[in-house]
Amino acid sequence: MDLVVLGGILAVSIIASGLDMLIDFVKEKRRVRSRLDPEGNVLLPNDSALIDRMAETIRQNFTGDIGTELRNMTFEERKDKMEAIARQIARDIGIGDIEIEFYNTQDTGCKYQGSYCFANNKLSINEDYLKITDDEILFDALDTVVHELSHAYQHKKMSELLERIYDAEDENDITYSEEDKRTCIWIINQKPGNYIKFEVDPEGYRKQPLEWYAFAMANAALRKLGGEE
Hints:
Blueprint: H1 3-32, H2 45-59, H3 66-71, H4 75-92, E1 99-103, H5 105-108, E2 114-117, E3 122-126, H6 135-167, H7 178-189, H8 202-207, H9 209-224
Parallel strand pairs: 1-3
Antiparallel strand pairs: 2-3
Helix pairs in contact: 2-4, 2-9, 4-6, 6-7, 6-9
């Protein structure tokens, strides 16, 4: 067999295998997220308004079935749509303009759909998932946007609480609301040595306070848009 032909066959095989890994990961994620055990984690009344706002922002960007519309877009149109939605949600939750970058699985692996960096207010999205012409996979990309921006909201709340404590003349004079108490738990969870990485313990990663909240917010927002747990 011609080496060029053989190389082409191998390349197609590798690409197909990579796509299968991406699809399998998303489907497994959708299965396990419905099994999240609260274990003391709860959504508070203020979260409901935030969920409604994020869901409405997403809905306003589409005219019909979201998965179908995304599938019918070009790859570049999907990227533009995700970026526009992310920027609006960022404004909705009060974190202002954010930096948005797209990367691929070559550097991070298929299990990283996205991330949010507290230090530079940057949302990163794995663009390889936007190349898959599957309604369910494309719809799940919105889950990633909401999940990661929920982390941005957590960072905002943690920064605000720490600033209040720093500015107080006497920390004992501060009255802590239920939201403040939850924020304190997030602050403790994000400290080095306390945060559980996915590759170390996938189940522990999902159940820790910081991640449980982000999963719960994304689940709730996407349910309002017709997504299943």
